[in-house]
Amino acid sequence: MPTVSTTYHTPVLLDEALEALAIEPAGTYCDLTFGGGGHSRAILERLGSDGSLYSFDQDRDTLANAPDDKRFHYVESNFRFLRGALRLRGVEQVDGILADLGVSSHHFDAVERGFSFRGEAPLDMRMNQRGGRTAADIVNLYDADSLARVLKEYGELETTWKIASCIVRAREQQPIRTTRELVEAVKPCTPRKDESKFLTKLFQALRIEVNGEMEALKMALEQSLKVLRPGGRLVVISYHSLEDRLVKNFFKSGNFEGRVEQDFYGRALTPFEVVSRKAIVPTAEEVTRNPRSRSAKMRVAIKL
After folding, report:
1. How do residues 151-201 score in pLDDT, each as one tens digit?
2. Distances in Å between the alpha carbon of 278 and those of 55, 232, 253, 297?
3. Among 211, 238, 270, residue at a domain's last position
């Protein structure tokens, strides 16, 4: 196994992702979620002197993890701007793209960023801290209907109207500014038995809304069709059913509804060859070693 730094984030499905990319030594690759650089360093170990790697991250904190390697190019950008960022750097097509979605261990462990309900911190949750709305903005400014929609779509929670009402009642007394204050606000509708699971889903929903994660994923997937050369590989690791469903449908049909179109002769029109019909998941050994990998699902496709 390649040597990687695990101080910032332990890369998930590392060996499986490298195998799925089928790295060519002189190829050009993209890591859309640089984070701690674990996947990127492993890709660099398999590249030759003529290979190139473009690693994206919108969180400026991750720049500290950038390796000193002339083949490595750090792109400080949301991966929703994949094609434009590459073209600015003179790159039209690449041989492979890896996207390890979700939140890094660093973000959960950096309590002050507000991604976790364990501890108290400003209700922020922005991946890019240089601007944009925070989770506090959403919690305090969205009306009850909009809050319920976010919690249902992105948290897949039940009784979302009841939860939204709890939040609205609490903020009428005083603005909800911290993670602890949000936990207290929803306490009347938090199930005692599954409190941790409930809060995880609640914070997930707000994080996805804050960062526009689903829209960014759609944009990146659509651009991958223009960026990947024929035979190029797209590898996506997702952590919840919303992401996985989008990826699965897109790989199957080239659209997000999974609607397979046919040509005049009834042959399926699809831009990809799906490498594995079933998602690839971590081994029991990896889950034991890195519990945060337990919900990971990896899908692989080759551009036709």
Report:
1. 999 999 999 999 999 999 999 999 999 999 999 999 999 998 999 999 999
2. 27, 20, 16, 9
3. 211
pLDDT band for 106, please (50, 70, 90 cuts): low
For 98, list phi and psi in degrees, rounded to 5: -120, 135
pLDDT for the residue numbered 118:
84
Q: Which domain holds residue 233?
A: 14-105+213-303
Q: Which structure tokens are listed for 170? A: 């609490």
Mean per-residue pLDDT, 129-144? 93
Report the alpha-carbon distance of residue 226 to residue 219 in Å, rounded.
Answer: 11
Q: What are the distances in angstroms from CA 251 to CA 24, 57, 231, 274, 281?
A: 22, 24, 14, 6, 17
Task: Find out whether 270 and 259 touch, Cβ atoms under 8 Å.
Answer: no
- Tokens linked to 108: 């959960």
Check whether residue 59 and residue 137 sit in a common domain.
Answer: no
CB 110 within 8 A of CB 124: no
User: Does residue 123 lie within any of the structural domains?
Assistant: yes
DSSP per-residue string spanning 136-201: HHHHHHS-HHHHHHHHHHHH--SSHHHHHHHHHHHHHHS---BHHHHHHHTGGG--STTHHHHHHH
Q: Let me know if residue 295 belongs to a domain.
A: yes
Give the residue among 48, 209, 222, 58 at the shortest CA–CA distance from 127: 58
Q: List, for residues 214-251, the tens digit of each pLDDT value.
A: 999 999 999 999 999 999 999 999 999 999 999 999 99
